[in-house]
């Protein structure tokens, strides 16, 4: 009987979603610090603790399939969602952010400050942070992108290669607006793929250095030349998750 009642109440849940999204502009000025019965509130910030507007927050039931509520963070990074009476039980919260840059559209999973469940009776505060690097919550992968390397006409130890990244001229900032910096990373053998992992998404030039020598790179998905310096714009190549990005190069001597 509960199954039928839930689907009869779907219009109510959908109307709750619309209400939650429309309330964003009228939230109080002070950040959410305590729970309110029947309500999920929170704030979305970047690595500088500045508010992030337009993040999509999903409140999902832990049992009922395809049962969720939606909200978006407002100009102050805040959101609020009212939980329905039915279905009863526990809910979880997650958030994503979509950004256009470098001719691509990127979707980011945001880091939650609490991954626990909550109910209508308890309410909850769930805050999120936009990170461009670091290990994801739960230890499954990284927030950053990765560069994959494939040997082509070279006889080198791939794990002895270092990639040197330099911010692209006239692109001094990463996708979140923070200042990009030059860095170098060693190539690792990750489950049979040679890669440099967890790179903050920005626009770079890259060189591959091996025993003091600069190797040649060729974009695996473009008809271009072998060159010592290549431009890095992350996209989707191969079998990647929804919010995972990479670029692939052949490496040769």
From TrEMBL:
Entry keywords, A to Z: Signal
Claim: Transmembrane is one of the keywords in the record: no
Signal sequence region: 1-20
Name of the featured protein: Carboxypeptidase regulatory-like domain-containing protein
SUPFAM superfamilies: Invasin/intimin cell-adhesion fragments
Coiled coil: none
Originating organism: Pinibacter soli
């Amino acid at each position: 009987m509960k199954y039928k009642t839930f689907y009869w109440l779907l219009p109510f849940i959908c109307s709750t979603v619309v209400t939650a999204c429309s309330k964003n502009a009228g939230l109080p000025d002070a950040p959410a610090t305590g729970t309110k019965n029947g309500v999920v509130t929170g704030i979305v910030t970047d690595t500088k603790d500045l508010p992030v507007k337009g993040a999509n927050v999903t409140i999902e039931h832990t049992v009922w399939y395809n049962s969720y509520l939606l909200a978006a963070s407002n100009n102050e990074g805040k959101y609020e969602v009212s939980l329905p009476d039915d279905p009863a039980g526990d809910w979880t919260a997650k958030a994503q952010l979509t950004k256009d840059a470098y001719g691509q559209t990127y979707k980011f999973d945001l880091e939650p400050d609490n991954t626990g469940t909550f109910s209508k009776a308890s309410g909850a505060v769930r805050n999120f942070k936009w990170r461009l690097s670091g290990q994801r919550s739960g230890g499954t992968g990284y927030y950053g992108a990765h560069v994959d390397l494939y040997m082509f006409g070279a006889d080198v130890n791939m794990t002895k290669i270092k990639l040197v990244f330099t911010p692209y001229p006239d692109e001094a900032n990463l996708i979140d607006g923070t200042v990009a910096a030059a860095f170098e990373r060693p190539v690792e053998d990750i489950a049979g793929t040679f890669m440099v992992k967890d790179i903050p998404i920005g626009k770079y030039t890259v060189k591959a250095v091996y025993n003091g020598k600069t190797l040649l790179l060729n974009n695996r998905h473009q008809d271009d030349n072998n060159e010592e310096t290549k431009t890095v714009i992350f996209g989707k190549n191969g079998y990647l998750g929804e919010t995972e990005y990479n670029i692939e190069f052949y490496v040769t001597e």
